[in-house]
Amino acid sequence: MKQKSIDRHIFSMFLIFFSLTTIVISLDFRSIARVFPLTFGIFTFVLVFLQFLSDLFPKNKIFGFMRTQGLAGNANFNSKSDDEQKENINTKNEWKTVFNIFIWLLIFVIVIRYVSYFIVVPIFLFLFLKFLSKETWKTSSLVAICAGAVVYLLFGLVLGR
Fold this sequence. Notes:
Blueprint: H1 3-26, H2 35-56, H3 65-68, H4 82-88, H5 91-114, H6 117-132, H7 137-158
Helix pairs in contact: 1-2, 5-6, 6-7
């Protein structure tokens, strides 16, 4: 097993432990206060556990979708060794993507200070999906509208903000 692989397993196990800790601690909160940490902990646990299994069994076709889509996707994961993949990785583009995401998040934090959360979340999500992830207008709009509705229902109605 290569060092990079071991590092990924250790990091995934740390995130699994963190999400389980969040779940357990949130169970002591009052019912309305536990909604967000419990939801966050459960979703994080499920997604990190799937990522851990994907890293543990990289040739398993069940987890193929986790390596072929998204900003950091690598569609050739089945046919090449780790050394060949390292040669094909364009680190400059990867760091450019990370930098772009960081800038988007920084702008999001600044704008949310002056504009309502209910307005900023769907707008930024739409812009991010459309222009950085290159999603279609339909997909970007649908995700932004659904996320805006969920944020409003959760924070506006359920938590009474």
